[in-house]
């Protein structure tokens, strides 16, 4: 994997690095894995659009990395019209489908509207964004689609019906994108992390303690890290580096794959 190059901000006289001249869009870019990915792509020279419902967070991070922001609720169909998307994706070389949410509940109590919301945000929205990004990537003969899935894209877990279904679906969508785009210079891959130290996981620790009826302090050891070989949470920056490598020229022959970043979780 390529070492992170020195960060050169536009204020210092322009971008440098392996992604210089590339334009990237990261959904859910204001927090956690998305924010680490924004920083990793920008550090390698890309101009990054931080797309997030958190307007202030997206704007602050965009300012930090010299990128731009798109304050958007990806669950609002009015925000994703064909003409809006055509404009947003003009010139985007790298799309990172990362925005995600989680609801923990047994299926019989799972609210159908929660199920739909998760499937929409984490499967239908990536489809719509890939669909919008591809034509102009094909025209330029270059594109990188990187989908942040999860160990739950390959293995299930109780009480996460919508999340597991969405991530399995996104793994499949990513492979189809790879098959259709290969001859036109577009690669498509998934990054599938184990438990990563982010606000989403902090909330999940509380939710899982409730649903399993165990203290929060025990969730990490008894549920989250039981199957991990390296007994710690993944750091968001580690995922960001992997995404940045997949976006680089070094990964030109990598497509249709799913890269674990899970400390051995999926090997068991
Ligand atoms: P996070 O909660 O830190 O960040 C999620 C981001 O998505 C936030 O900035 C949030 O504002 C944004 N978002 C949520 N709903 C949105 C909407 N409707 N429109 C626009 N933006 C919206 O979460 P994270 O842990 O960094 O997760 C990022 C991705 O990584 C998710 O797809 C998640 O499933 C995946 N993932 C996380 C872990 C983990 O352990 N944290 C593990 C595997 C996969």
Automatic annotation (TrEMBL):
Entry's Gene Ontology BP terms: monocarboxylic acid metabolic process
Instruction: Give this protein's Gene Ontology molecular function annotations.
Output: oxidoreductase activity
Keyword annotations for this protein?
Answer: Oxidoreductase
Top-level division of the source organism's lineage: Bacteria
| Key word Transmembrane present | no
The family this protein is said to belong to: Belongs to the short-chain dehydrogenases/reductases (SDR) family.
Report the PANTHER family cross-referenced here.
Answer: 3-OXOACYL-(ACYL-CARRIER-PROTEIN) REDUCTASE (PTHR42879), 3-OXOACYL-[ACYL-CARRIER-PROTEIN] REDUCTASE FABG (PTHR42879:SF2)
Q: What is this protein called?
A: SDR family oxidoreductase
Q: Which organism is it from?
A: Cryobacterium algoritolerans
Identify the taxonomic lineage of the organism of origin.
Bacteria, Bacillati, Actinomycetota, Actinomycetes, Micrococcales
């Amino acid at each position: 994997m390529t070492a992170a190059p020195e960060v050169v901000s536009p204020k210092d006289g322009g971008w440098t690095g392996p992604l210089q001249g590339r334009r990237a869009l990261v959904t859910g870019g204001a927090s956690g894995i998305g924010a680490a990915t924004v920083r990793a792509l920008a550090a390698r020279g890309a101009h990054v659009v931080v797309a997030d419902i958190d307007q202030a967070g997206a704007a602050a991070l965009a300012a930090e990395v010299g990128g731009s922001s798109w304050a958007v609720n990806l669950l609002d169909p009015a925000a994703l019209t064909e003409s809006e998307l055509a404009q947003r994706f003009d010139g985007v070389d790298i799309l990172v489908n990362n925005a995600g949410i989680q609801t923990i509940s047994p299926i019989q109590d799972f609210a159908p509207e929660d199920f739909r919301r998760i499937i929409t945000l984490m499967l239908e929205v990536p489809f719509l964004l890939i669909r919008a990004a591809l034509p102009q990537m094909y025209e330029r003969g270059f594109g990188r689609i990187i989908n942040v899935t999860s160990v739950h894209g390959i293995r299930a877990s109780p009480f996460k019906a919508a999340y597991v279904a969405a991530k399995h679906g996104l793994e499949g969508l990513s492979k189809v994108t790879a098959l259709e785009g290969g001859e036109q210079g577009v690669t498509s891959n998934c990054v599938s992390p184990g438990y990563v130290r982010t606000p989403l996981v902090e909330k999940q620790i509380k939710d899982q303690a409730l649903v399993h009826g165990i203290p929060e302090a025990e969730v990490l050891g008894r549920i989250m890290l039981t199957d991990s070989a390296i007994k710690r949470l993944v750091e968001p920056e580690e995922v960001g580096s992997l995404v940045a490598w997949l976006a680089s020229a070094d990964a030109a022959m990598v497509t249709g794959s799913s890269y674990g970043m899970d400390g051995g979780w999926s090997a068991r």
